[in-house]
UniProtKB/TrEMBL annotation:
Keywords for this protein: 4Fe-4S, Electron transport, Iron, Iron-sulfur, Membrane, Metal-binding, Transmembrane, Transmembrane helix, Transport
PANTHER family: FERREDOXIN-TYPE PROTEIN NAPH
Organism: Shewanella electrodiphila
Ranges of residues in domain 4Fe-4S ferredoxin-type: 270-299
Pfam families attached to this UniProt entry: Fer4_18, Fer4_5, FixG_C
UniProt cross-references to PROSITE patterns, sorted A to Z: 4FE4S_FER_1, 4FE4S_FER_2
Name of the protein: Cytochrome c oxidase accessory protein CcoG
NCBIfam families from the UniProt entry: ccoG_rdxA_fixG (TIGR02745)
InterPro entries reported for this sequence: 4Fe4S_Fe-S-bd, 4Fe4S_Fe_S_CS, Cyt_c_oxidase_cbb3_FixG, Electron_Trans/Redox, FixG_C, Helical_ferredxn, Ig-like_fold
Keyword match Transmembrane helix: yes
Regions crossing the membrane: 52-72, 92-113, 166-184, 190-215, 349-367
Gene (name only): ccoG
Length: 501
């Protein structure tokens, strides 16, 4: 019977250093990595998650709310619509808090699960997987794709490549439309693009994002993760000894080496022990299925996106040889080296959780402090005042103002204009212009307004000053009948001055 164990010396089968990478098997002459197709628990999770996220990405722009697109980032009109909420430029602090909260949420998850975002949720990973799926359907499995790359030019090769790139271009164009559908009406956008009737700049932006998708997911692929993504460079700073990452159990797996497939408990088990071999059969499947082409047995590397493909591949191999699973698994340093269960308490995790909580509180406070009315009061600077009646016992002065009132809601509304002033003033102030106005949704009304003052009978001239403080109040009402209601729907105010001799 031939020796089932490799005759290679044990010392030569020790794990390579992190700077010495085992060559990737499925690499064409052009240097392109052809990832081996892999099935398993984590790959099913990835497929379902990516499919769900891509579907959500394309469906959201087609959702309607109150007769309009539910989520629309209208940069031209400087309005961001989120269902019944409209954010204007002055409300963009809310978006800042949202982005910061998302960042701290990502950091918080990273402390416990490492780079799981990259493996299961990142758009680059999702679109790359979709492009690779199309490539496999047209050109075949990883062996066929490698052979096709190395094959001389032929009609069959040209046909397959043309079909693949046509499918990629179509997906990229639809993706460009999907992205721009968040910034302009999606239903009209798709029709305009595919009927070649879109405006110049609309077409430019759609084709720009289509080109980016085509290059990133079709050509660059793992290069984006290895060289362009900043997260891969600093994500290790958030790790600690309890962070779960894809890890290789070197104590159990080394020394690695090939052997015949058999079940433990038979003669092969004695041979393994005599030769000092571990559970790793050195099949290289963990390298073949890796999207970034690394060998996880070299230890933790920034190129690893925690997709779990090598975990599924290794577990299938362990099952074939009758070995225990999880030679490669999602585990922590403490669990791997000390056998300790991961602790949920971490200074980093608590810090990120606290920051996330602060961001969420700020979002709620900012949303609650928002008003659906914007008011800007501008005095007439050409003339401080005008004297209408100059009789000493009945002097009437008027001031002119321009009120800029913006309805920040998505429905037309009635607004009542009123003024408040110090009751000890010697004058009573009145608005001479109509005080009830109707403003359309998302419209700003520039409303000229005149205010006059009248001497009170019970106060003398000496009680007044040459300048009085006024407060303009804009109150939203359902109709003229609700002007005197004690519970206004919304109200905003701004102070100004009334000048007189």
């Amino acid at each position: 019977m031939s020796d089932p164990v490799s005759s290679e010396p044990v010392s030569s089968r020790l794990p390579t250093s992190s700077t010495q990478r085992i060559p990737v098997v499925n690499v064409s002459a052009s240097g392109k990595i052809h990832v081996r197709e892999q099935q398993g628990v984590f790959q099913k999770i990835r497929q379902h998650t990516n499919t769900l996220l891509i579907a959500i990405f394309f469906i959201i722009p087609f959702l309607n709310f109150n007769g309009r697109q539910a989520i629309l980032l209208d940069v031209t009109e400087q309005q961001f619509f989120f269902f019944n909420i409209t954010l204007w430029p002055q409300d963009f602090t809310v978006l800042a808090w949202v982005f910061m909260a998302a960042a701290f949420a990502l950091f918080f998850v990273t402390v416990y699960w490492g780079r799981v975002w990259c493996g299961f949720l990142c758009p680059q990973t999702a679109w790359t997987a979709m492009f690779m799926w199309v490539e496999a359907k047209i050109e075949g499995n990883h062996h066929h794709r490698t052979a096709l790359d190395n094959a001389p030019l032929s009609a069959s090769k040209v046909g397959k490549r043309l079909s693949k790139h046509t499918a990629w271009a179509f997906i990229a164009l639809v993706t460009g439309c999907g992205f721009m559908g968040y910034f302009m009406p999606a239903r009209d956008l798709y029709i305009d693009i595919f009927t070649f009737s879109s405006g110049f700049w609309t077409g430019v932006w759609v084709w720009f994002f289509a080109l980016c998708t085509y290059l990133n997911a079709g050509w660059m692929r793992e290069m984006m993760c290895l060289h362009c993504c900043p997260y891969s460079r600093f994500q290790a700073v958030m790790f600690d000894s309890n962070t779960k990452t894809v890890s290789y159990d070197a104590a159990r797996g080394e020394n690695r080496g090939p052997r015949k497939r058999n079940k433990r408990g038979t003669d092969i088990d004695k041979v393994v022990k005599l030769e000092g071999l571990g559970d790793c059969v050195d099949c290289h499947l963990c390298v073949d299925v890796c999207p970034t082409g690394i060998d996880i047995r070299n230890g933790l590397q920034y190129e690893c996106i925690n997709c779990g493909a090598c975990v599924d591949a290794c577990n299938q191999t362990m099952e074939k040889f009758g070995y225990q699973p999880n030679l490669i698994s999602f585990t922590s340093e403490n669990a791997l080296e000390k056998g300790q269960k991961p602790s949920i308490w971490s200074v980093k995790a608590l810090g990120y959780a606290s920051a996330l909580l602060v961001m969420l509180v700020l979002i709620v406070m900012d949303l609650n402090s928002r008003t659906d009315i914007q008011l800007n009061v501008i005095r007439d600077r050409q003339s401080l005042y005008r004297v209408i009646n100059s009789q000493p016992d009945n002097e009437v002065i008027e001031n002119s103002y321009l009120l800029k009132i913006r309805n920040k809601t998505q429905q037309a509304a009635f607004y009542n204009i009123s003024i408040a002033y110090d009751n000890v003033s010697a004058y009573e102030f009145e608005i001479e212009t109509e005080t009830l106005v109707l403003i359309k949704a998302a419209e700003q009304l520039e409303y000229p307004l005149t205010v006059t003052n009248v001497m009170r009978d019970n106060l003398g001239m000496t009680a007044g000053n040459a300048r009085d403080e006024l407060t303009f109040l804009i109150t939203e009402v359902n109709s003229a009948a609700e002007i005197d209601s004690q519970k206004p729907l919304n109200q905003v105010s701004q102070e100004s001055r009334f000048f007189r001799p």
